[in-house]
Amino acid sequence: MYLWKDVMEMSKSLPLHEVILNLEMFDTGEAPQVLRKKLSEMLEVILEEAKNQYGKTQKTLTGFTGDNAFKLKNYKAKFLSEFNYIATVTALSIAESNASMGRIVACPTAGSSGVIPGVFYALYEIFSPSFEELLNSFIVAGGIGKVIADKATISGAAGGCQAEIGTAAAMGAGALTYYFSKDSEKVGNAAALVLKSVMGLVCDPVGGFVEVPCVKRNGNLVNIAISSAEMALSGIKSLIPFDEVVNAMRRVGSQLPQSLRETGEGGVANTPTAKTLIANLNFLI
Amino acid sequence: MNLLKVVGPVMVGPSSSHTLGALRIARFVYKLIGGIPNEVTFILHESFSKTHRGHGTDRALLAGILGLKQDDPNIKNAYDIAKSKELKYSFIVEDLGDVHPNTVRIKVFKDGIPHEIEGSSIGGGDIKITFIDSVSCELSWDYDTLVIVNKDAPSALKSILDVIKVNVANLYLRRINLLQEKAITIIELDEPIENIEEIKKSPYVYECYFIRRDT
Question: What is the ipTM of this complex?
């Protein structure tokens, strides 16, 4: 277990992604090269699935979602940059693939598995990076996620959606910021900016299924990751340091009632339309 | 939490606890009995069954008992595969008592031999096997695991352990039946065992199963 402020201190003499791998070795005994190899296999799956599922319609388990990525892909964006647009289509595509029992990387969880592919596939498409460069940013995303997992939680059932999709977006923002700055302080700022923007976000899946509002939350949160990275890269700081924001998120999570932590009993799950949807549910697959 | 767990694992969706964990429990059973059974009954604890179709829990369980790996895109076609393999299956909902909400009991028949295994999906894809053939245990399947039915007699354990050359992480031993002089020994190992045949040869060993950790 480590704090971001310690990581920042150590990254003065060693690249941040190497610091994170070294710290992991102290924790688990796994050699950095071995870990790097395993992480590269995951990143390969992320890019491969992003490419294969991009903008496709999916037959999801409940049928509540499945055509959102397709709709956005067949529409010309008015406001989003090309980067945001690709990231959003990808995030929706993977979230819908997840809801159809497709192959995903639970980074950091299955329900929030669209955000990281969105960030990395957009980087890959727009900036043509080397795989090793992408992998370094992926490792940094993992380091951000680990700080949150160790000091708070990444489970919606334990801490609400702020802990799931919030962590995904914080990881994505950290990765983007590292890709362009190699600056661990800016990475921490980007992650903190995300978590502060989703502080208190509840986990309220309709019927308890990972579709509504999860799929579209992936599509939206990838944009918060991007704007937070953009702000951090410009030099904007989070006045509250990342470590403290994580602690605040943990406390907020534990204050959330049970009904707002993945039980499907509160939030949008507890609306007349949600109840009608569940009453009339015919499983598609 | 280790880094690989934070950024992974690779799996099929939609839920680590309802899909991945369910598959892993059933796949543990598949590995234990050394193949696809002739017949399987999945007894889902009430709360686990509530949302099972919307999470593909049923497909995940079937896929696991058919031996599919956790990232196999064919998991969603588990019903078709079960049919083509002529696997007889059924799903039952029952109150399994004071257990974890996401608990399933799996009864299998393979070549006439019955087994009954219970496991819980405890979050993030982690599982806990809570009993094997009436013996309570707490297996995470984070280790290579040996399950041995042996003679309940002096030196039985010693004779088994003498043959094991790799490091033992955890060990459970429990008497099944005093009159029949039967005990069950579950051993979690740091590395796979190479000489399982030697264990089977022991006069103290009635049945021996080796369940390799999924990597």
Answer: 0.96
* Domain interval for residue B34: 8-132
Task: State which residue of chain B sits closest to A60, comparing Cα positions.
Answer: B54
* DSSP summary character for residue B39: E
**Residue in chain A nearest B80 by alpha carbon:** A285
Would B96 be classed as within a structural domain?
A: yes
pLDDT digits (tens, 9 = 90+) for A124-175: 999 999 999 999 999 999 999 999 999 999 999 999 999 999 999 999 999 9
Residue A99 near chain B (CB below 8 Å): yes
Question: Any bridge partners for residue B39, and if so which?
Answer: B88, B109
Is-contact B88 A242, C-beta < 8 A?
no
Nearest-CA neighbor of A216 among A268, A146, A147, A159? A268
Inter-chain touch A28–B2, beta carbons under 8 Å:
yes
> In the beta sheet, which residues pair with residue B104?
B44, B119
B57 min Cα distance to partner chain A (Å):
10
Question: CB–CB of B50 and A208 under 8 A?
Answer: yes
Do both B117 and B180 map to the same domain?
no
Enter the tokens of residue A228. 């937070």
> d(Cα B69, Cα A83) in Å, to the nearest integer?
34
DSSP one-letter code for A260: G
- Does the distance separating the beta carbons of A104 and B7 come in below 8 Å? no
pTM to 2 decimal places: 0.94
Say whether B54 and A207 touch across the interface (CB within 8 A).
yes
Q: Examine residue B2 and state whether it is found in any structural domain, yes or no.
A: no
Residue A55: what residue type?
G
A174 close contact with B: CB closer than 8 A: no
Helix (H) or strand (E) segment spanning residue A73: helix A68-73
B212 inside domain: yes
Does B151 map to a domain?
yes
Nearest alpha carbon to residue A177 among A191, A188, A187: A187
Q: Does A102 touch chain B (CB under 8 A)?
A: yes
Q: Please list every residue in chain A whose beta carbon sits closer than 8 Å to the beta carbon of residue B7.
A: 39, 42, 105, 107-108, 116, 138, 141-142, 145
CB neighbour burial string for B68-96, b if at least 16 within 10 angstroms, e if fewer:
bebbbeebbbbeebbeeeebebebeeeeb
Domain that holds residue A261: 4-283
